[in-house]
Design brief:
Strand content: 5-15%
Distance between the termini: 48 Å
Radius of gyration: 30 Å
Largest sheet: 5 strands, parallel
Length: 745
């Protein structure tokens, strides 16, 4: 650690190189954790072990950093823009299987980002200019050529690790005069590799230290003779894995090989569905538990559901066994079938109280979803189109615009002409993603193809509604506002009752925005109030913030700044629930316009800076909807007119450096994110009148408006608000609004 820290102080690229299982990742994580203070703008871990395709490396880096690129980003451009002025460090973990791509990315980033440092882990160096390689050796082991004793064992890290892990496996195990010689020999046989030591120590649950020594000796000799052409590092690692595999039962070995079909982590439900045909009925759970005990599987329990992971080395080993004994294609078919159905379930429950759960789950399942999509497309399965299109709402909500477009493009190559409705769905989704990135030419071409496919679709009204929505959004982004309103209104007419709630909500929101730009404020408010009511009724969270933003904008146009600020605050609170940078940016931008009108120039500049940075993070130009530029330009002019140029620029830069949470807190006037009371049992008791007042505060009403609505004195209304703040231990009206919203959900 000390050596690596010194190297990082003098070199912007340090690669920890060594054999698999030697502890490179563990060391990198420890160094990264201790280096946080030295990098003011953050330290990120980019895990590449699950990236099977080098072409996805840039997207993986961008996704980890929270950057979603424009269509013209050409790979690294968006990442470079994001990191150019930041002092930060990226840990590129497990580069060996994508080493050329990792080297290209590292070289481009280091050349363009002067304050960036990269710490890489790999089985081989990246071999680019400026790289400093830190070789990570195995743990120190007893030297058989020097005199040894039990007391001397404390000098050897391999022995220390073995004893520590053995004591975990067998409580009470310790180094003694009777076993230290055997332990020393075992550590020598395992070459001091941490992974091999940990896997072997846990076997003391089943065998004695003498039996372990004997088995390792025999297995090493057999492996050396059988794989003379393999490099020594593979022999040592394979010795450990072969031996672990031999100690497994036949059912454990079979499940190990079948679990290698998963990329990244997986849930028990998936393992039971995909792998149960190879095992006795109901035995998957017990066998998974056995593999956890034997350190073949790692249990990950941070989320609401326990997940499991095969170390990549063990996954590769399992795949070798699978290729030797099973029909891999059949297993991968079951895997892709299961994840296709998962994507369909997520889509069907997207507009529901389960939405946040699905977002978290799909985030965790991304490696498996990618693997399943890739396999299905490679097999030219025509349902690949429906599979990819089912993930469109998720991709859009997470800002994975480029990834969504790529998968939809690949899936459309499997079209056999038998499912025109699926083709329409995918083409319309791809068009909206392209338009959202500013690629209007591509969006128009995709719509032309969608028109042809719509004529062939069986579900004529639904396909036509999808097409009208996509055409309306294209017109909106192209500045053809009248056409946008017409198409979106037609989409709503065509939608069957109680079907496609997602499409109904986004069409209402689009129609509301277009109506507002046409000057029809009443229709704009009515459309978004309907969308908001629909979202609330169905319990979804993603689209609420967008409705609050448009409503706030329209109310501001009517001259009610206080009410507008209340609605925009609610928009920020809703966006915070789902970590939505785009909706947050729009709310901040609108609040900047209000602040400029209220002669709060410095706040306006900060809000504009924060909004622009968030837009850039999702690959969008600032104020990208034609018709709204006039307000942005007027806000900047007014703020600059009050502040000197240097002060405006400093405030703008301060806002642009904020994180999403900091930007949201700025807009809300909070010092930190709102934390509603955790449980009803702990909730403070409000009087009936205080609950009424809290509800009105949540709607954005001022004290005077509350007083008028409840027919009480202004001073009385103020007193109620102060009592509520005191009881809830809050400091702002925005926190009351968040508390009310949480209680209602």
């Amino acid at each position: 650690m000390a050596t690596t820290k010194r190297l990082l102080a003098n070199s912007r690229l340090v690669t920890l190189a060594g054999i698999g299982g030697v502890g490179k990742t563990r060391l990198a994580l420890r160094i990264a954790a201790e280096a946080r203070r030295a990098f003011a703008d953050g330290v990120w871990l980019v895990e590449l072990g699950e990236v099977a395709d080098a072409d996805l490396l840039v997207d993986t880096v961008a996704s980890t950093l929270g950057i979603h690129q424009r269509a013209d980003a050409q790979g690294l451009h968006g990442i470079i823009e994001h990191l150019q002025s930041r002092k930060c460090m990226i840990v590129l973990d497990n580069c060996e299987h994508v080493v050329e791509a990792a080297a290209d990315v590292a070289r481009a980033l280091l050349e363009s980002c002067p304050e960036l440092h990269i710490l890489a882990t790999s089985r081989e160096p990246l071999r680019i200019g400026g790289e400093t390689v830190q070789r990570i050796p195995p743990l120190s082991i007893p030297d058989s050529h020097t005199p040894l004793s039990m007391q001397s064992m404390s000098r050897y890290d391999a022995v220390t690790l073995f004893v520590d892990r053995a004591a975990t496996a067998v409580p009470g195990f310790r180094l003694t005069e009777d076993n230290w010689g055997q332990i020393a020999r075992i550590c020598n046989q395992l070459d001091g590799l941490p992974l091999a030591i940990e896997l072997s120590a846990v076997r003391l649950r089943a065998i004695s230290i003498d039996q372990m020594h004997d088995k390792l000796v025999n297995r090493y000799e057999l492996l050396t003779r059988g794989r003379r052409c393999a490099p020594p590092r593979q022999q040592s690692l394979r010795l450990c894995i072969d031996w672990t595999h031999d100690l497994c039962t036949s059912q454990e070995r079979l499940l190990w090989s079948h679990l290698s079909v998963f990329a990244g982590s997986f849930e028990l439900e998936a393992a039971e569905a995909i792998c149960s045909d190879a095992l006795a009925p109901g035995s998957v759970l017990d066998t998974v538990a056995s593999l956890v005990d034997k350190s073949v599987l790692i249990r990950e329990g941070d989320g609401p559901t326990v997940r499991f992971r095969l170390l990549e080395t063990l996954r590769e080993y399992g795949r070798e066994m699978l290729h030797d004994n099973e029909d891999v294609t059949a297993l991968r078919h079951r895997h892709s079938d299961w994840y296709r159905k998962l994507a369909r379930r997520a889509e069907s429950e997207w507009i529901s109280p389960h939405q946040l759960t699905w977002i978290a789950r799909l985030d965790r399942e991304q490696p498996n979803l990618r693997e399943a999509l890739q396999f299905r497309i490679s097999q030219s399965e025509s349902d690949s189109i429906d599979f990819a299109a089912s993930l469109y709402p998720f991709w859009f909500s997470r800002g994975l615009l480029s990834e969504g477009r790529r998968w939809l493009d690949l899936a459309l190559t499997t079209d056999d002409g038998r499912h025109p409705a699926d083709r329409v769905k995918a083409l319309c989704a791809q068009s909206v993603l392209a338009d959202r990135q500013g690629d209007l030419e591509a969006g128009a071409q995709l719509l032309t193809e969608a028109v042809v496919s719509t004529d062939r679709a069986d579900d004529d009204e639904i396909s036509q509604a999808r097409l009208c929505h996509a055409q309306g959004m294209h017109s909106l982004y192209a500045g053809e506002i009248g056409s946008a309103a017409t198409s979106l209104a037609e989409a709503l007419v065509l939608l069957p009752d109680h079907q496609l709630p997602y499409l109904r909500i986004v069409s209402l929101q689009g129609l509301g925005l277009a109506s507002g730009l046409l000057g029809d404020t009443a229709r704009a408010i009515a459309s978004n109030e309907e969308a908001l009511a629909f979202s609330t009724e169905l319990g979804e969270s993603v689209y609420r913030a967008r409705s609050f933003w448009v409503l706030g904008l329209q109310v501001w146009h009517l001259g009610n700044s206080d009410r507008a600020k209340g609605l925009l605050d609610q928009g920020l609170l809703s966006a915070r629930v789902v970590d939505d940078p785009l909706s947050t940016a729009w709310c901040l931008e609108a609040l900047a316009w209000i602040a400029a009108k209220d002669d709060r120039a410095e706040r306006a500049a900060q809000l504009m800076g924060a909004a622009e940075a968030l837009w850039q993070s999702v690959g969008s130009a600032p104020v990208h909807i034609p018709g709204l530029h006039i307000y942005h330009d007027e806000c900047a002019r007014q703020a600059r007119g009050v502040l000197c140029g240097g002060t405006f620029d400093a405030a703008f830069r301060a806002g642009s450096r904020m994180t999403l949470a900091e930007a949201s807190a700025l807009g809300l006037g909070d010092d930190m994110p709102v934390r509603p009371t955790d449980s009803d049992s702990d909730a403070p008791t409000l009087t009936k009148r205080e609950k009424q007042v809290a509800d009105l505060v949540a709607e954005g009403l001022t004290n005077r408006s509350i007083a008028a609505k409840l027919v009480i004195a202004d001073r009385t209304a103020q007193g109620h608000v102060e009592h509520i703040l005191t009881k809830l231990n809050f400091t702002s009206r925005a926190q009351i609004a968040a508390w009310v919203a949480e209680r209602k959900r």
